[in-house]
Structure formats: C-alpha cells, structure tokens
C-alpha cells in the first residue's frame, strides 16, 4: 500500500511539472507568435488552465515532501501527548477540509458539464475539462492528508528536518 500511495503522490508531482512546462510552452507560443505576426487564440487561457492544474496537482507531493509552509509557534513548544493531540486535531481538520474541497471541486466539474459552461475567453473551452485537474489535485491531497493522519495515529509519521519532537 505504501508503494502505491507514494507512486500516486510522485505521479501527481510529475504531472504538475508537465503542466508547468505547458505554461512555459503557452507563454513562449504567445511571444513567438506576436514576433512573427500571427495570433494563436487561447494561449493566455491555456496557460492559466495549466498553471491551475500544476498548482492543484502539486499539493499532495509538496505535503509528503514536507515542503508546505507550517506555522509551529504553538505546537513547537509542546511535547509528548499534548503535541501528538494537537497534531491529530490539526490533521483531522485538514482531512475534513480537504475532503470538502475535493467533494465540491468534483461537484463543480459535474455542474460545469451539466450546464455546458464554457470559458468566456477566445478559446471557448468547456470549463469542466480544466476543472478536472482541480478535482484530481484536491482528491490526491485528501488522500495524502488522510495518509498523514493514519501515520500520526500509528506514531509512524516522519517529521520535517529541523522539527524537533520530544516525547
């Protein structure tokens, strides 16, 4: 199970990296097309879709790499059971919030598809297509946070470097 979860997080990270390359490609296409005198409609919109996709898909990989910004003003002063309790509480809230975010992201995808919602930009892309990336990223983040919650509950959670935990 651990290998599958780690592969999921790594795969989402690689997909996020590919979408960042997509942002670069759209920006370069826009610049080059202006220089040579032709217009490629939708490059700005597609760069935006790729940027949003990269951001959402990178969330879980960033979490599992301990790269999320974390304010430890209070929890850094706690030790033992108090620290573990606060960690579990914070992770429980994060799991609930990310679960709601994933649910409502997929609901938005479904509603955009149902109502035939399209982009108002020159590309006129059906919005449910790029919104799938948001739903996917939020779902993988929910899984990663649930994974962290289970690891904390079992006492197997790996701390970020420099995060001193004394129990």
UniProtKB/TrEMBL annotation:
Pfam families assigned to the protein according to its UniProt record, in alphabetical order: DctQ
Alphabetized InterPro entries for the sequence: DctQ, TRAP_DctQ
UniProt entry tagged with the keyword tRNA processing: no
Membrane topology, record value: Multi-pass membrane protein
Coiled coil: none
Keywords on record: Cell inner membrane, Cell membrane, Membrane, Transmembrane, Transmembrane helix, Transport
GO molecular function, one term: transmembrane transporter activity
Gene Ontology CC: one annotated term: plasma membrane
Location of this chain's protein in the cell: Cell inner membrane
One GO BP annotation of this record: C4-dicarboxylate transport
Top-level taxon of origin: Bacteria
All copies of domain Tripartite ATP-independent periplasmic transporters DctQ component, residue ranges: 24-154
Parts of the chain that traverse the membrane: 7-40, 46-65, 86-106, 126-146
Chief location category: membrane
Protein family (similarity comment): Belongs to the TRAP transporter small permease family.
Function: Part of the tripartite ATP-independent periplasmic (TRAP) transport system.
Subunit structure, as described in the record: The complex comprises the extracytoplasmic solute receptor protein and the two transmembrane proteins.
Name of the protein in question: TRAP transporter small permease protein
Species this protein is from: Hydrogenophaga intermedia
């Amino acid at each position: 199970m651990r290998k599958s979860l780690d592969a999921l997080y790594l795969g989402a990270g690689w997909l996020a990296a590919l979408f960042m390359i997509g942002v670069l490609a759209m920006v370069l296409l826009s610049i080059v097309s202006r220089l040579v005198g032709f217009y490629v409609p939708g490059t700005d919109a597609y760069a935006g879709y790729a940027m949003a996709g990269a951001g959402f898909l990178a969330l879980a990989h960033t979490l599992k790499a301990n790269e999320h910004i974390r304010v430890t003003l209070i929890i850094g002063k706690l030790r033992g059971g108090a620290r573990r309790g606060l960690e579990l509480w914070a992770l429980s809230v994060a799991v609930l919030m990310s679960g709601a975010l994933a649910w409502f992201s997929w609901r938005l995808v479904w509603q955009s598809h149902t109502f035939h919602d399209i982009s108002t930009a020159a590309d006129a892309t059906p919005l449910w297509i790029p919104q799938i990336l948001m739903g996917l990223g939020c779902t993988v983040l929910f899984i990663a946070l649930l994974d962290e919650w289970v690891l904390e509950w079992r006492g197997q959670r790996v701390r970020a470097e420099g995060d001193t935990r004394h129990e």
